[in-house]
Amino acid sequence: MRQSMWHASGLNAEHIHQLGVVFGLLLSTIFLIVVGVALLSVRRRHRGFDQERLEGSHEPSARTEARLRWIVGVATGVTILILFGLTIVSVSVGKVISASVAPAGSLFVDVTGTQWWWKIRYASDDPSRILQTANEIHIPVGRPVAIRGNADDVIHSFWVPNLQGKRDLIPGRTTLEWLQADKPGEYRGQCAEFCGLQHAHMAFWVIAEPPDRFKAWFEQQLQPAVEPSDEDQRRGKEIFLKSGCVLCHAIRGTDAGAQIGPDLTHFGSRKTIAAGTLWNTKGNLAGWIADPQNIKPGTHMATVPIGSAEMQPLIDYLESLK
Amino acid sequence: MRYVAIGCCLLTLIACKRETREVRPSPAVSGILGDMGAESALYPGGATNHLNVRNPYEGNAYALSEGQRLFDWYNCSGCHAHGGGGIGPPLIKQDQRDWIYGGEPSNIFDTIVKGRPNGMPTWGGKIPEYQVWQIVTYVRSLSNLEPKAATPARADTLEQKSETIITKKDGAPHQ
């Protein structure tokens, strides 16, 4: 699915879409009229530069004065009415889509923007059912999802154009917005507030699935990481745990528990790596680990020295974490 | 005459150079191994021999701010606080003789990479070397050992003022 507000796939996005259509049609019509009138007046015969200026020689008649006053008056009135109408439409759409209270039965997801990726946490009253993941939000179709936004470092903005408008994520302040997908699909989202060097490479995916498939995904993600199934992956796990990876990343079910970088427990099941920068393939992963600064200059992912013989087992292990 | 003077002033502008951000660790940095001072050569009390190894990031503002971030991320602040000390010794030192294992960049690098008795963990093999150097740069900036132009004008946490009086080990104030 293309990342575009013109392809609305949810209730709130539909409202924004309609607002866009109203504004777009009305304002382009007015623009065309204004440009048309301006072109007409250019085409009309005008006085040459050598002739005396009109203001000096010509006194407009009372009838012309009255006609002009009438035209200007009506145009001003219409402009005020249009602006007023647009304000009412815009504010009422804003009120509908930015409810400060999530609808009943919402799924609560905490989204924390951080340079330059997204921390995702599915909230639950039961601590054993809190799910931590990164850069990929699975949601059930037809159920409202409340996004509680926050930021770790600078201001970011959460934006999935196909589903909802933008919401700024401000450090130390929780903001709320809710969205609902009416059609299953994969929707790309993007940080919409300039947040530093890699702002452009700070994307994420919202994957809307039928409720039963969402439930299956959620239960699977709650499980700890799978154990390595062959010698190669076992070595990869060893390399992961003894190298610098563990300083920032967590893999549930192993000793790695750091909360600085993305949680990698089910890394292999994600679509992309480096916050939507690369497709999740073995080749891309090897490139990313070997030289992250080449792919995302300035990224906080460290250039960890991994020997060439160690790279293959390591990526085999990481990709096995489905 | 005046225009010549103004022209000369303008000419000095060509000496300005913006520090480039080296986001990629250069091979020279990652090539240095964390084994610069033999253990036997260390003397508690600051009389440490320092090897002739230059900190590749000395005076580099970007590296210094990266070091500041890593200082928290790798939880150095967990023991050393933000330079004030706690479980570990304070890193803001007015008297450079207070460094137990030496305050030269190479000494601090060694301390981080190898660890020290009574609590300092061994970070070698975990923190990549270029990041160790960035942390070294930040740690030295805490005691105003880095150029003022590279350090933030206002620290986020503790800051050493030049007039601060830190008591000596015997309780008497330094002058």
The radius of gyration of chain B is: 19 Å
CATH hierarchy, class of the domain at 65-153 in chain B: Mainly Alpha
Strand order across the largest sheet of chain A: 3-2-1-5-8
Oligomer: heterodimer
Total count of strands of chain B: 0
Helix content of chain B: 25-40%
Beta-strand content of chain A: 15-25%
CATH top level assignment of the domain at 107-221 in chain A: Mainly Beta
Number of helices of chain A: 8
Describe this structure in words.
The complex is a heterodimer of chains A (322) and B (175). Chain A is an alpha+beta fold and 322 residues long. In chain A, 38% of the residues lie in helices and 19% in strands. The longest helix of chain A is centred in the first third of the chain and has 36 residues, at 62-97. Helices cover 32% and strands 0% of the residues of chain B. Chain B has helices spanning 2-11, 27-31, 61-73, 77-80, 105-114, 129-142. In chain B, helix 5 crosses helix 6. Chain B is elongated, with a radius of gyration of 19 Å. Chains A and B meet through loops of A and helix 6 of B.
What keywords describe this structure?
heterodimer; A: 322 residues; alpha+beta; Immunoglobulin-like; 8 helices; 38% helix; elongated; B: 175 residues; mainly alpha; Cytochrome Bc1 Complex, Chain D, domain 2; 6 helices; 0% strand
Compact summary:
The complex is a heterodimer of chains A (322) and B (175). Chain A is α+β, with helices and mostly antiparallel strands.
Which helices and strands occur, and which strands form pairs?
The complex is a heterodimer of chains A (322) and B (175).
Chain A (H helix, E strand, L loop, with lengths): L10 H33 L10 H4 L4 H36 L9 E8 L2 E6 L8 E4 L1 E5 L4 E7 L4 E4 L7 E3 L5 E5 L5 E7 L11 E7 L1 H12 L8 H12 L29 E2 L4 E2 L2 H9 L1 H4 L12 H13 L2
Parallel strand pairs in A: 1-5, 4-10
Antiparallel strand pairs in A: 1-2, 2-3, 5-8, 6-7, 6-9, 9-10, 11-12
Helix pairs in contact in A: 1-3, 5-8, 6-8
Chain B lengths: L1 H10 L15 H5 L29 H13 L3 H4 L24 H10 L14 H14 L33
Helix pairs in contact in B: 3-6, 5-6
